[in-house]
Design a protein that fits this description.
Strand order of the largest sheet: 2-8-7-6-5-3-4
Shape: globular
Structural class: alpha/beta
Radius of gyration: 23 Å
Strand content: 15-25%
Helix content: 25-40%
Number of strands: 13
Oligomer: single chain
CATH architecture of the largest domain: 3-Layer(aba) Sandwich
Length: 397
């Protein structure tokens, strides 16, 4: 992929023994920001909304916001923003089909929810294997490696969803552990709501039924890319706590316009052990990072408040309409597009390298995609499709 900025040597960026010239460094960082902002109009392949509207909150960068411990725990110092974090968690819990009293949640890094969920799942089913499809995000494998949990890869159907029948077979043949007799080890199923390449949504009702072949079942939903989209789709797919999920993680920056990655971890409270809690070194805390970014919670809260539930629904509908428009235009261009109903991800034949580089497309094999998040307009789609058409014409001649 073409680099957006000139490659800088390590020597140029090295932190030396003496202070650097602050004005020159600030100028360099501002040029970086302006360049990336301008280039963002041609970033169609990355699932992040670059339509930032938070300039009025710049003074927040001059304050230290450190959320230490659980969002509901008390603070010994006044430097956190936990009340705002709790409001954000309540919003996302409702979007994922649960009441705030039913789930434990917090604002975290983008994929931390998967790690948090697998730790919880292993406590519930200590001998179970993890089952995820070949379309799952690589962070699932990374989390399993970190925790020393065995990952079983399950096949997927052509539209990108996990194959429930293959899951049934895979879990059935692994149902026995020592001793040979007794209940099976169970299964920890990591479903995906919004697969990385196709934006497909796994049906967790069907997957839970299929995995019963192994015994008890824990279902985690990696809804990083598609949770907010699924929550505002009609009809709503089987993806949330309302459909039987035990835990869910959702990204805030992919559908919303945030300048930093931010994720939300949610897990059913009855699956977590009780904690007495205490002061500081004995604080009640079930988060992974313990100290977390209060700034991320504040930015999420500010954007969600500016939209409200009706505005969020309208934003998702507009993005879905743009996806339908992109699908139609790519079909007219003969690029063989694909679109899962309700998704923002439009797949198509991989174009020549110059088109991939210009539009910063994400590709795998013969397939490429765009994701019609908020900053992707119909005008951008038209300009992109014009390049696709020109490339196809050049090949034909």
């Amino acid at each position: 992929m073409r680099a957006i900025l000139p490659v800088l040597s390590l020597a140029a960026l090295a932190i030396g023994a003496q202070p650097s010239e602050a004005a020159a460094d600030a100028d360099r960082l501002l040029k970086l920001a302006y360049t990336l902002r301008g280039e963002g109009q041609r970033v169609l392949g990355l699932p992040g909304n670059l339509d930032f509207r938070l300039e009025g909150l710049v003074p927040l960068l001059g304050v230290f916001f450190n959320n230490v411990g659980a969002p509901g725990s008390g603070d010994a110092s006044p430097v956190g923003a936990k009340a705002y974090e709790r409001a954000v968690v309540e919003y996302f819990a409702a979007a994922a089909g649960a009441g705030v009293d039913e789930v434990y949640g917090y604002v975290a890094s983008s994929s931390e929810g998967i790690l948090h969920a697998l730790v919880t799942a292993r406590r519930v089913l200590p001998h179970a294997r993890v089952y995820a499809s070949d379309q799952a995000h690589y962070s699932v494998k990374r989390a399993c490696d970190l925790l020393g949990m065995e990952l079983v890869t399950v096949g997927s159907l052509p539209e990108g969803t996990m194959d429930a029948e293959d899951l049934r077979i895979q879990s059935f043949v692994r149902r026995r552990i020592r001793p040979v007799f007794g209940p099976g080890p169970g299964a920890i199923v990591v479903a995906t709501c919004g697969t990385t390449m196709r934006g497909a949504v796994d049906d967790i009702v069907a997957l839970r039924t299929a995995a019963l072949a192994a015994g008890a079942v824990y279902v985690h939903v990696d809804a990083a890319g598609g949770g907010l989209i699924a929550a505002h789709s009609d009809p709503v797919p089987n993806w949330s706590f309302a459909h039987g999920a035990n835990s869910v993680n959702i990204c805030g920056h992919k559908a919303l316009d945030l300048p930093i990655p931010a994720g939300i971890c949610l897990v059913r409270r009855d699956l977590l052990p009780a904690q007495d809690g205490g002061e500081y070194v004995a604080a009640s805390d079930r988060t992974v990072a313990c100290s977390r970014s209060g700034l991320a919670a504040l930015l999420l809260w500010a954007r969600l408040r500016s939209l409200g539930r009706t505005g969020m629904a309208a934003l998702i509908r507009r993005c879905q309409d743009t996806a339908l428009y992109a699908h139609r235009r790519l079909e007219e261009a003969g690029a063989h597009p694909g679109l899962v109903p309700g998704s923002l991800t439009v797949t198509f034949d991989r174009p020549p390298p110059w088109v991939v580089d210009k539009w910063h497309l994400t590709c795998t094999g013969s397939l490429a995609h765009i994701v019609t998040v908020g900053h992707v307009t119909r005008a951008a789609v038209d300009a992109f499709v014009a390049d696709v058409g020109a490339a196809r014409l050049a090949v034909a001649t």
